[in-house]
Every structure is written in structure tokens, then in C-alpha cells.
Amino acid sequence: MTPVRVLAVASEVYPIVKTGGLADVAGALPIALKTHGVEMRTLMPGYPDVMRLVSGAAEIRTWPDYFGGPGRLLAGFHEGLDLFVLDVPHLYARPGNPYVTTEGVDWPDNGVRFAALSRVAADIGHGLVPAFVPDVVHAHDWQAGLAPAYLHYDNRPRPATVMTIHNMAYQGKFAPELIGSIGLPWHSFNVNELEYFGGISFLKAGLQFADRITTVSPTYAREIQSDEGGMGLGGLLRARASVLSGILNGIDIAVWNPEEDPHIAYRYGAEDLTFRAANKAVLQQQFNLDSSDEAPLLGVISRLSWQKGLDLLLEAIPTILREGMQLALLGSGDRDLQERYQAAARANPGRIGVVIGYDEILAHLLQAGSDALIVPSRFEPCGLTQLCALRYGAVPIVSRVGGLEDTIVDIGEADASGRDATGFKFAPVTAEALAGSLRKANAAFHDKPAWRRLQRNGLATDVSWRKRAGDYAALYRGLVAARA
Question: What is the pLDDT of residues 325-348, one digit of tens each?
Fold first, then answer.
């Protein structure tokens, strides 16, 4: 097997920096690719957390003035990941979230910050690091979207390029005046290149110039070609449909493993789910819920937003209460939704528990102790929480969109699909349809053999990166072969 060298470009990488699923993919995929003969190194910004973890990294390039201040390119390692780190303190040495201020407002220079990341990615593609000249540059989301554009406009021999969309809702839109200051040609400001509704879009740049476009599920790949799902870029994606494909995300099954998970109260395996009840009891205690094994406990781990459909779940709370179910929610986001969930918990003590924020340990306990996990998203490129739920025997209740459609087999469709049922899916994405699925799930929960089958089918599902990494490896090799 001929080795392939790939430079991945990502603004966040688990376990170093994480705000969402992008980090999980950027952290897990390089390790999974090693068995497929792919050497992947990941380029990321030198945020404070990154610099602390790669303190022994080797300095391989310095600049007295890199996009307005001194900068360095470092090479290092962390937990099996081969990293390039762009250390430019005036751009990245900021506390907290990588993208927003402590007030939750985008950093005003985000365009420059992530143009700098893409520029050095293109330079590595051209041979800036002689010891690692990539065959492919793989850009993740809008923050890396200019990498294929820089490589295109450099008009030199270049590696192949891949652009992966993790969420169409985030497009990296900026004023056109940015073009000159980040080293792109002014002639690129036209509708067939970077121009986007009077400004420029980093995501559009990547979609326009990458050799291949991927997204994180086959269904989402179809959805984003529509005007609604494409969010302004549907026409471009339809025009490039021949190079667009969906490859499902996986999860790190070493991190998400109920047999060895250090974060849960009691470990268990697929052969014996007895200890799930003990985890449920601890979870109920953590969320101040009544102690009961007979009340189905619904878990939610989510950003609280319109996209995630968490307003619909609020409307379904009367159904949850009537059906004798409990709800444990972990998440943060929209302030109004946070307050409404907190009010629902106060009004229904013992039945509804809410923790605002994110806690990795509590997230693992929710997977291990919930009877079912709800993901009612209006759109969902792939989704990872439902994959973790399958791994832990928490039965998913999901909307029929994106990767949720691709990864869960509805209890009513198992025979027709030839696959074993693993959960419940509802459509349209309304409060009424969600309530109907909750009632069906409640009925199945009280049929113990039927519920146990759903759990075991989920536990038997391959949610790892094994096959998915193979799909990426085949994509890279096909690109390299086409350019030979």
C-alpha cells in the first residue's frame, strides 16, 4: 500500500481544544487513518491551551511579520496526533472560546485570524516543510476554507485539495475590503469566485476551489444541494455535485466505551446491561430526579438552539409528564431557551432536571444512565451524540434529517430495511411529531424484551472510525492517482 501524506487544517482538535463535533472528527480521524497507510498531520492555531500542551514543540519556521505581528510554525505531538501549530500571539493568544469574546461576540479580526491559518496551510502544501510535503490538503469548515483558494490563486504546482463541511450554517462571511489585506487578488471578487451577497465567504471559497467536497453524512450531502439546506450555497453545490459526497462521522470508541469509561459510576458491557440501572440511579441523583427505575429517563446533551430543535422539546414537555417520563438536560446556548428549561425544572421538581453548561463527565453519565437520548434537530449534518448513545445502550429518539436519518433505524422500518431497529425517528420536525415518537418510545420501554432488543442492536452497531477512515483513505488515493 503506497503511503499518502495529508495535511489536515482545523480550527479545533479534541482533546486539545473543543467547541463542537468538528474537534472530535479532527482529533479522531488522523489516528484512525494510520492503519490505512495515511500519514496525516494537523495544522491548528496556537491558542493558549494549545501552546501549553505542545510546550516542547520544535520551531521550524519564523516570521518577523505574519499578518501584522511576529509568528512561528511549530511541529509537535499530543496523544497520538502529529501537529503543526501556527503560533501567532497577536492573533491567537486570547482566553476562552477560539471564535468569540467573553461577551459571546465574534472577534472582529476573525477574517485575518483564519486567513493566516489557511495561508500557512497553502505554504506547507507548496513545500514549506521539506520533511512533510503533503499529497493532499484537507480543509475543515470555513476557518480553513481559504486554503484551497490560496493554492488555486498561487498558480503553482500544488497538492490535491478536499473541503469538508461540518455545518452549512457557519460560512465565514466578511467584508470585501478584507481581500487585499489577506493577500488574495482583487479579481477574485466576483460571483463565480469569492463574492457572496456583497461580501466574501471563506466557506464558499473552499467549495469553489477544492478538488473534492465532502460532508459528514450522505443524507446531508443531498440536503445541502437544496436552496433551503444550502443556505445560500445550494446552487454552487448543485453545480459541483459530481465532486460532492457524504462520509459518515464515527466516534472514538476508546473514549466512548462503557466497559472502560472512567467517567461513569458503574461500567458494563453489551452482554450484561444490569449496571445501566445503577448508572441511572446516580444520574437521577445528579439531576435531582425522583429515584425510579420504572420511569423512562430521557437524556439530552445539546447546544440549546433553534437548529437543535430544543424549542420543540419544550413544547413536548406536557407529553413527557403525562407519560410518566423524566427529562435530564445538559446544555447551554440561547439565553431564552436556558431560562425556559430552568423554569420547567423549577415547576416540575423530581421530573425534570437541567444543568446549564457543558461537563464531559456528566455527558458520559448521561449516556450510561439515560434510557433514551433525544436529538430533535431541525438539521443535523451528522450528529455524534446519537452514535455515543448507541454505544452505551441509550435508545435514540431523533428527527429524520441528515446523519440522524443515516445512523438510526426506526423501530417501524426494521423489516423493510433489512437492518435491526435501533431507535425512533420522527418527521416532520414538529412538536407534535416528536410527542408521537415519545409516546411510542414509552410504550416500547414498558415492553422489556422489545426495549432490550433495541439496546442490544444499538450496542452491536459499528460506530467507530474503522470504515469511515477507509472511505477517506480511498478518497485521498483516488485524488492522488488522478493527478499522477
Answer: 999 999 999 999 999 999 999 999
Residue 1 is predicted with a pLDDT of 73
Residue 353 lies in a domain: yes
191 and 330 housed in the same domain: no
Alpha-carbon distance 421 to 387, whole Å?
Answer: 14
**Any domain includes 241:** yes
Strand partners, 409: none
Are 426 and 297 in the same domain? yes
Strands 81-87 and 38-45: parallel
HEC sequence for 173-187: EECCCHHHHCCCCHH
Distances (CA, A) of 232 to 112, 272, 380: 23, 49, 17
The total number of structural domains that make up the chain: 2
Residues 285 and 197 in one domain: no
Q: What is the mean pLDDT of the segment spanning 368-392?
A: 97
Please check whether residue 387 lies inside any domain of the structure.
yes
How many residues in total does the chain contain? 484
Q: Which domain holds residue 122?
A: 4-250+466-483
449/475 same-domain check: no
Between CA 345 and CA 332 the distance in angstroms is 15
Residue 150 and residue 290 in one domain: no
Is 18 one of the annotated binding-site residues? yes
Read off the pLDDT band of 20 (50, 70, 90): confident
Whether 139 is in a domain gets the answer yes
pLDDT of residue 207: 98
Residues 298, 408, single domain; the answer is yes
Burial of 191 (0-12, 13-18, 19+ CB in 10 A): exposed
155 phi-psi bin (left φ>0, alpha ψ -120 to 50, beta other):
left
pLDDT over threshold 80, residue 352: yes
Residues 280 and 157 in one domain: no
| CA 462 from centroid of its chain's CA atoms | 18
Beta strand pairing status for 195-196 and 199-201? antiparallel
Please give the C-alpha separations between residue 445 and each of 269, 391, 396, 450, in angstroms, as whole numbers: 20, 18, 12, 8
**Under 8 Å between Cβ of 211 and 479:** yes
Q: What is the pLDDT of residue 483?
A: 86
**Sequence-distant (≥ 6) Cβ neighbours of residue 77 within 8 angstroms:** 54, 83
Q: Is 131 left (phi over 0), alpha (psi -120 to 50) or beta?
A: alpha
Among 452, 467, 442, 422, CA closest to 270: 452
Residues 209 and 357 reside in one and the same domain:
no
Q: Smallest Cα–Cα separation from 134: which of 23, 30, 206, 12?
A: 30
